[in-house]
Amino acid sequence: MAALADAYLGALFDTYPTMAAALGLHEYDGRMPDVQEPARARRLAALQGFRARLDAIPGDSIDPEDAHDHILLSLAIDEERFELEQLRDFERNPLAFSGPLDVSGYIKRDYAPLDQRVQVLSEHLRQVPDYLRNAQETLREPVPRPFLSRRRWRSMAA
Predict the structure, then answer these.
(1) What is the pTM of this model?
(2) 68-109, pLDDT tens digit by residue?
(3) Do residues 35 and 133 make contact, with C-beta atoms less than 8 angstroms apart?
């Protein structure tokens, strides 16, 4: 079970490197996620593979500690599959792309010497134009009016 969970987390962090960096895994610093359709298709295929591997573990062979991990991994796979296959927020909500644009972690966290953090921050920022271009191509028109309304953003800021 531990090997499967480790493989899942490794693939998760490779897919969402800014999430990994925010969690303190600084080997992912300076990397942006690939938001294009082929990357999402690869992630869905990986999730289906993880689901198959998880389902192949006989329930009676799981000890009580691993049972908890089994449930958590099952729920994580199902949630991400739902987000990618059904919810598809990335097609209609521009804010779905905002997380990787937050670079405050490089500045406010003193986890490495400043020059090293500036170096990975610069690498991160170099990738932003391509990331935004890919995000724009991923959004499907029409984007729902509530996501574009200034009134909505003003009321959220209040």
Answers:
(1) 0.87
(2) 999 999 999 999 999 999 999 999 899 999 999 999 999 999
(3) no
For residue 106, the tally of other CB atoms under 10 A from its CB is: 23
- Which residue, among 71, 43, 42, has the nearest Cα to 55 in the 3D structure? 71
| pLDDT band per the 50, 70, 90 thresholds, residue 156 | low
HEC letters along 111-134:
CCCHHHHHHHHHHHHHHHHHHHHH
- 17, amino acid identity: P
Contact call for residues 85 and 44 (beta carbons, < 8 A): yes
Length of the chain: 158
Provide the residue ranges of all domains of the chain, joining segments of one domain with +.
2-157
Q: Quick one: pLDDT at residue 143?
A: 76
**Distant-in-sequence, close-in-space partners of 133: CB < 8 Å, separation ≥ 6:** none
Instruction: Name, in order, each residue with C-beta under 8 angstroms of 131's C-beta and a sequence gap of 6 or more.
Output: 32, 33, 35, 97, 100, 101
